Amino acid sequence: PSKLPALMERRHALRRRILKFRELQAVYMPAALPVLAEDSSTRADVELVENIRLGLPSSISTTHRSLVCSSHLQALEGRLREAQCRDALQDIRNKLHSLAHLYQYKKVNVRHQGPNTRARVDLGKQEARKERAVHTYRRARSTLLALRGPGDWEKTFRVLDDDDIRHMTEDDPLTALRKRKR
């Protein structure tokens, strides 16, 4: 219950920022406002402001996009999404590396119930962070696909399957050989 006022304060702050963003949209994308007004998920007067769609070029249908926003804005969002993909991939790598070290530390050093519980909690937190980074990458990639369509950029930013998300030691033939010998 004590967190509710802080949450409401954050929602009001977010609503104010969204309204300022709408003012900027009116300057740089004036034709987008009527299109956004038709969509109920872009209205800023709803209770859950965190669910409001901003109306970036990628979220506007391809039929309206060229009429509503300039190619410069579309390219700008494309660069933003590329950077978001790169950051998310690096974050995934970092989290996988941390997870491998945590598992190794737990295997070698942790004994008994209390320390094991703490180690499992730490591993769970790191797994959740990794999943958030994966979700961020997938969302940014799908946005990039909606913005640019299929192309050469897909060679760099490939579809990320669950099987692709593993630490490099799992691919190491020496590690596999050692496991088989045990």
Describe the model.
The chain is mainly α and 182 residues long. 70% of the residues lie in helices and 0% in strands. The model has no long low-confidence stretch (mean pLDDT 90).
Characterize this entry briefly.
With 182 residues, the chain is mainly α. The chain has helices at residues 3-28, 32-38, 62-68, 71-109, 113-148, 153-156, 173-181. It is built from seven helices and no strands.
Descriptive terms for the model:
182 residues, mainly alpha, 7 helices, 70% helix
Mean pLDDT: 90
End-to-end gap: 53 Å
Oligomer: single chain
Helicity level: over 70%
Instruction: Estimate what percentage of residues fall within beta strands.
Output: under 5%
Structural class: mainly alpha
The number of helices is 7
- SSE series: HHHHHHH
Task: Specify Rg, calculated over alpha carbons.
Answer: 22 Å
Total E-strand runs = 0
Largest sheet: none
Which stretches of 5+ consecutive residues score pLDDT under 50? none
Based on CA inertia axes, which overall geometry fits? flat
Write the layout of secondary structure elements.
Blueprint: H1 3-28, H2 32-38, H3 62-68, H4 71-109, H5 113-148, H6 153-156, H7 173-181
Helix pairs in contact: 4-5
